[in-house]
Amino acid sequence: MNKGAIALVFTICKNIHNTRPVVPNKIFRLAPNDNTALFRDDATFCIKPGLASLTNVSFRSYNFPTYYIRHRNFELYIDPYSTNSSFLNDVTFTLVAPFAP
C-alpha cells in the first residue's frame, strides 16, 4: 500500500428471503417469512472478505456474528468460526456473474 493510502473494508448485509437458519450449526431450512424482526435478522448475512482468500467472500450471520455459511457435502450449514483450514476453505466463496440463459 502506498504511504498515505487508506484501505476501506465495507460490510454489506443482505437478507435471504424465505430462508431462516434458526439453529446455528444446522443445515439451512426454508421457512415462510413471518415478517418479524427475528426472521429478518436470522435470514441476514454480511458479506465479508473471504476467510481463506481475501479475493473471495465469506458470509457471516447477522444474528449470530461468530457463525458463517459453510458448504459441506453439497449442503449449506451455519457453523461457528474455527481456525481449522478446512473450515476456512469451506466458508470462502467465489462471486461469479449470474447465470443467464
Automatic annotation (TrEMBL):
Limits of the Alpha-L-arabinofuranosidase B arabinose-binding domain: 28-94
Stored Pfam families: AbfB
Signal peptide region: none
InterPro entries from the UniProt entry: AbfB_ABD, AbfB_ABD_sf
Name of the protein in question: AbfB domain-containing protein
Lineage, broadest ranks: Bacteria, Bacillati, Cyanobacteriota, Cyanophyceae, Nostocales
